[in-house]
């Protein structure tokens, strides 16, 4: 894991960092806008501003991956960060709610596009023995971004016009990410898939040395409709389902946020923002051991075991007539800790299960599928909670998590130890690559590309 490869992982994680940052900062900013009667926001505008970035994320992931597979990783790697920077700067100067909705939609669009770009770069550069760790790092960085936003919000909560500084503050990490990404070359695997062998070999020699070889393979034209072929569509649905079954109950467990904050004395005023940092930290910590478990116990066992424990934690909260504070905290901590398994694998699996020519497209499609459920949950959950109560909400979360478990048991493949060329040939539920699929053209290489 050379310094160059660490740089690729670090700055590729900038997209998830910005996703966590911009989704978290808007909540703190809106609170101040409402208190100070800025932009004359009513309930409708608040909902529209809150949802705009999520809608943009859905569209961005849907089309961003395909564009990345067509024109290359490096070009999109830089374009999207510049776009996020300019749009974030623009949000600091809005004068109407509509302007803010449009800006937030645009930010969501380009951040959504960054996910398939960045994860493809990491998967295609990282040695296979470190691939799970690198993807786990990307998953954990989302919570780092959210926590950073809450801290910035806490510091600016009592500043006059602080919401403008909050929204514009994303410019700073954008600049850092842009500088870090500038010298990262195009993915040799992508170049090889487009029959640009000489360029791919030159990058390999530059990055890894003269001993690196690029095994010849067929060049492949990116076709988005290839995602709808049975062998690929089933994988997209599988990844999207486990993604959704991890994300939707997470919103349910967040309903216990106020009680957890109160237990630590973080339920009032500015301190409630620090309570959000505490919640995000729980989930971030869960990503760390999962980075290593994906290699030690394997992807399949990690996914099945994590969903089983997460389902149990939510079921306990739903079954107890009255859950004491410490029971709530323990169940929450258990759920958050083991959510790191599916949280990491939802990034790792799509990058391992699809060939280079549609890898980014597949990541985007799976993420878009999961976002549909996430957006629906955000609107359904508050009404369901008020109508049926907390216990029923936890039971519903346990049922959704159980669906993830039931899908994982027969379908989750084991990709541990395989090259990207080998793992992209796997059928769901199998350990051995299927022989009827073409291997990825850029397989034979030193550890750097395996």
From TrEMBL:
Domain Major facilitator superfamily (MFS) profile: 8-416
Membrane topology: Multi-pass membrane protein
Source organism (scientific name): Pengzhenrongella frigida
GO CC annotation terms, alphabetical: plasma membrane
Compartments where located: Cell membrane
Transmembrane annotation, as ranges: 45-65, 77-95, 101-123, 135-157, 163-184, 233-257, 277-295, 307-338, 358-381, 393-412
Region listing for Disordered, in residue ranges: 422-450
Keyword annotations: Membrane, Transmembrane, Transmembrane helix, Transport
Full protein name: MFS transporter
Keyword RNA-binding: no
Pfam families from the UniProt entry: Sugar_tr
């Amino acid at each position: 894991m050379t310094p160059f490869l660490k740089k690729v992982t670090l700055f590729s994680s900038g997209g998830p960092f910005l996703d966590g940052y911009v989704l978290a900062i808007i909540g703190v900013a809106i609170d101040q806008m409402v208190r100070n009667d800025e932009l004359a926001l009513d309930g409708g505008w608040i909902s529209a501003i809150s949802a705009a970035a999520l809608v943009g994320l859905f569209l961005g992931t849907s089309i961003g991956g395909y564009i990345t597979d067509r024109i290359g990783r490096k070009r999109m790697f830089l374009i999207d960060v510049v776009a996020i920077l300019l749009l974030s700067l623009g949000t600091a100067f809005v004068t109407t709610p509509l302007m803010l909705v449009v800006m937030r939609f645009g930010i969501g669009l380009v951040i959504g596009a960054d996910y398939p770009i960045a994860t493809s770069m990491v998967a295609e550069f990282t040695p296979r023995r470190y691939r799970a760790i690198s993807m786990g790092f990307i998953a954990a960085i989302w919570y780092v971004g959210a926590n950073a936003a809450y801290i910035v919000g806490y510091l600016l909560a009592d500043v006059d016009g602080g919401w403008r500084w909050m929204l514009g503050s994303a410019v700073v990490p954008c600049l850092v990410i842009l500088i870090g990404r500038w010298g990262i070359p195009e993915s040799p695997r992508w170049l090889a898939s487009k029959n640009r062998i000489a360029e791919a070999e030159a990058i390999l020699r530059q990055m890894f040395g003269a001993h690196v070889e690029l095994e010849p393979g067929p060049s492949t034209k990116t076709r988005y409709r290839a995602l709808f072929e049975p062998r690929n569509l089933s994988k997209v649905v599988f990844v999207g389902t486990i993604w959704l079954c991890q994300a939707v109950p997470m919103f349910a467990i967040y309903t216990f946020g106020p009680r957890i904050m109160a237990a630590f004395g973080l339920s009032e005023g500015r301190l409630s923002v620090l309570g959000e940092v505490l919640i995000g930290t729980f989930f971030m910590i869960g990503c760390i051991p999962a980075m290593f478990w994906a290699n030690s116990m394997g992807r399949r066992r990690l996914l099945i075991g994590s969903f089983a424990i997460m389902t149990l934690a939510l079921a306990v909260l739903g079954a107890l007539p009255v859950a004491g504070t410490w029971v709530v905290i323990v169940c929450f901590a258990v759920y958050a800790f083991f959510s790191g398994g599916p949280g990491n694998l939802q990034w790792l699996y799509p990058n391992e299960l699809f060939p280079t020519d549609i890898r980014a497209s597949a990541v985007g499609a799976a993420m878009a599928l999961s976002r549909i459920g996430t957006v629906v949950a955000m609107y359904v959950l508050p009404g369901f909670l008020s109508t049926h109560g907390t216990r029923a909400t936890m039971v519903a979360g346990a049922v959704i998590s159980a669906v993830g478990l039931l899908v994982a048991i027969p379908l989750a493949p084991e990709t541990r130890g395989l090259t990207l060329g080998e793992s992209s040939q796997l059928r769901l539920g199998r350990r051995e690559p299927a022989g009827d699929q073409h291997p990825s053209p850029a397989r034979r290489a030193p550890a750097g590309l395996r």
